[in-house]
Amino acid sequence: MTAEATAPGATRRYDVLVVGAGFAGMYLIRKLRDELGLDVRVFERGDGVGGTWFWNRYPGARCDVESLFYSYSFDADLQRDWQWSERYPAQPEILAYAEHVADRFDLRPSIEFGTAVTAAEFDELENTWTVTTDTGDRASAPYLITAVGCLSAWQIPSFEGIESFAGEVHHTGDWPKEGVDFTGRRVAVIGTGSSGIQSIPVIARQAAHLTVFQRTAHYSIPARNRPLTEVEQRDTKAEYDVLRDLARQSRAGLVTDAALGAALETDPLVARTELERRWWRGGAGLTGIFTDTILSTEANEVVAEFVRGKVRSLVRDPRTAALLEPRDYPIGTKRLVIDSDYYATFNLPHVDLVSVRDTPIERISPRGVVVDGHEYECDAIVFATGFDAMTGSLNRIAIRGTGGQLLRDKWAAGPQSYLGLGVSGFPNMFMVTGPGSPSVLSNMIVSIEQHVDWIADYLGHLQRAGIVRTEASPEAERDWVEHVNDLAAGTLLPTAASWYMGANIPGKPRVYMPYCGGVGTYRDKCAQVAGDGYAGFVHHRARRGSGSTVENDGAVPASA
User: Fold this and answer.
1) How much of the chain exceeds pLDDT 90, in percent?
2) Which of 42, 82, 216, 330 could make an S-S bridge to 111, C-beta 3.0–4.6 Å?
3) Three-state SS for 445?
4) Are residues 306 and 441 in the same domain?
């Protein structure tokens, strides 16, 4: 089916509207356009594909999932042909991969670049969604799919005087394409989360002086990044079918070493030896050493103290080392950061660390950053202050469902969804890696492919069954939200003031947003829902001769 020809200014019509051309949006084109034959229109505010990796061009930007598994699995030839250069892929290589996929499968003709969706509204009579863009154009389709990403809505705290600063201001999530040259300049980096930890060593190599402002010390593990050999790639690709299936059934969408068992039941010497092995191997496998790392405070402290000991051994100045030792939250309750020479950077004579935990930043002056009455002069400020995660990009769009209800209003006390895929009161709308799904607790590519495959199968089912409208039932949504909350409450995860909880955004409700039951368990649940006739979704069929008149087909909600 193709879009109807329309006069200038008229609403264009498609089968499916998609917001976002990152890895989710690109795969949606491949599934819905190329396999189901649907006319898909993707709106992308950037001028290229890649989503998160289009915008996050900051120095040192690198994925924390190994390159051979941070990649699509849907096409065997693509898997075989693409060659990764490093164990952990840097932003330029990931973006090059995304661009290669877009060219290889001719995805660009289905994408409108440089076009932001500002509003989306559901027509209850026609059972269609109409989106409005920042250019004033309108498009409609029976289905709306959001593929906006979980970490796309970057934010800068509202510091007093920020407009007065005379130097350059950058955010790691909105980095200039042409890059930034800090050679010979005084630089301030505010924030020591993932983007701060990755960018600080790189900026330090350029800057004449670097001042890092830290509110919370974070756990960071060395990446041990290195070039990939041809033999390594060949051997992994030969086992891709098995390895990919293991990842899909795993907890985090990754193939990792097995846990030793419960921490306090493990011989301390064995535990210490394995902790050392995992530290020197690098990567995010450290917290998986025990089965109860995220369940038991005592078990968690074994791993946490091991990392703090490493910080003390790497940072020469005891005062600086003490500030860098993470003590504010259990390890693994925030996404673990992997780094290259982060702690060692603070041994350099031109790098200073300023704690703003007890004495917050007072204001930004024309010459720099003011803390406790002292002005730290600088020529450039880099805000590594993160994102309004998971819900921010959706809430910035005026999405209206039945009765004109805004999604952001429905989510005022925290996001509500069924499976992280659908929302009651928002018919024919699906989310890829939405709140209530594993999303940010997983290898995102694994979760993206699972969601897109499920949505594509569901759309095919709806077409075959003559169903014109579907939405999550309020009961199924309520049960799923309770289930997600109950799972998190049985762990240490909600104890951290993390962006998983929305804690980095003033006024945002403190709700644990992702599903922590594991990728494999979640995948089985979604398959069960589909096998039960998409239980938990309410279906409506068009009556003969009555166009948009609908009736309930009797689908029943599924409990969590």
Assistant:
1) 82
2) 42
3) helix
4) no
Using pLDDT thresholds of 50, 70 and 90, give the confidence band for residue 507: low
Domain count, the chain: 2
Query: Which amino acid, residue 512?
Result: Y
Rounded to whole angstroms, the Cα distance separating 91 from 56 reads 7
State which of 383, 416, 433 marks the end of a domain. Answer: 383
Q: Is 493 exposed, middle or buried (0-12, 13-18, 19+ CB in 10 A)?
A: buried
Tell me the DSSP string of 89-145.
-BHHHHHHHHHHHHHHTT-GGGEETT--EEEEEEETTTTEEEEEETTS-EEEESEEE
Do residue 51 and residue 187 come from a single domain? no
Mean per-residue pLDDT, 181-186 = 96
Query: Domain check: are 338 and 196 in the same one?
Result: yes
Asked whether the beta carbons of 41 and 141 are under 8 A apart, the reply is yes
**Cα distance between residue 121 and residue 396, in whole Å:** 14
Same domain, 359 and 418: no
Same domain, 377 and 401: no
Across-strand partners of 121?
130, 400
Q: Verify that 402 and 514 share a domain, yes or no.
A: yes
The pLDDT tens digits of the residues spanning 377-403 come to 999 999 998 755 556 688 899 999 999
Q: Does residue 199 sit in the same domain as residue 327?
A: yes
User: Which letter does DSSP use for residue 401 in this model?
Assistant: -
State how beta strands 209-214 and 186-190 pair.
parallel
| Within-domain flag for 494 | yes
Q: DSSP assignment of 9-52, as one string?
A: TSPEE-SEEEE--SHHHHHHIIIIIIIT---EEEE-SSSSS-TH
Report the C-alpha gap between 462 and 540 in whole angstroms: 10
Interval 491-512 mean pLDDT: 64
What ranges in 337-425 are assigned the alpha helix state H?
342-345, 392-395, 407-410
Lowest mean pLDDT among 7-11, 15-19, 498-502: 498-502
115 and 196 in a single domain? The answer is no
Tell whether 37 is covered by a domain: yes
Which of the 8 DSSP states describes residue 288?
G
The encoded tokens of residue 494 equal 């909600």
| Cα distances (Å, whole numbers) of residue 271 to 50, 266, 286, 305, 337 | 40, 6, 11, 13, 22
The CATH number linked to 232 is 3.50.50.60
Q: Structural domain of residue 309, as residue ranges?
A: 162-249+296-383
Tell me phi and psi for residue 297, to 5 degrees: -60, -40
Give tens-digit pLDDT for 117-150: 999 999 999 999 999 999 999 999 999 999 997 6
Residues 6+ apart with CB under 8 A from 484: 436, 512, 514, 515, 516, 560
Per-residue b or e along 69-81, where b marks 16 or more CB atoms closer than 10 Å to that residue's CB: bbbbbeeeebbee
What pLDDT, in 10s, does the model give residues 52-99? 999 989 999 999 999 999 999 999 999 999 999 999 999 999 999 999
User: With left for phi above 0 and alpha for psi between -120 and 50, is residue 114 left, alpha or beta?
Assistant: left
Q: Is residue 254 part of a domain?
A: no
pTM: 0.93
Residue 422, classed as helix, strand or coil, is: strand
β-strands 209-214, 429-431: how paired? unpaired
For residue 262, is it within any domain?
Answer: no
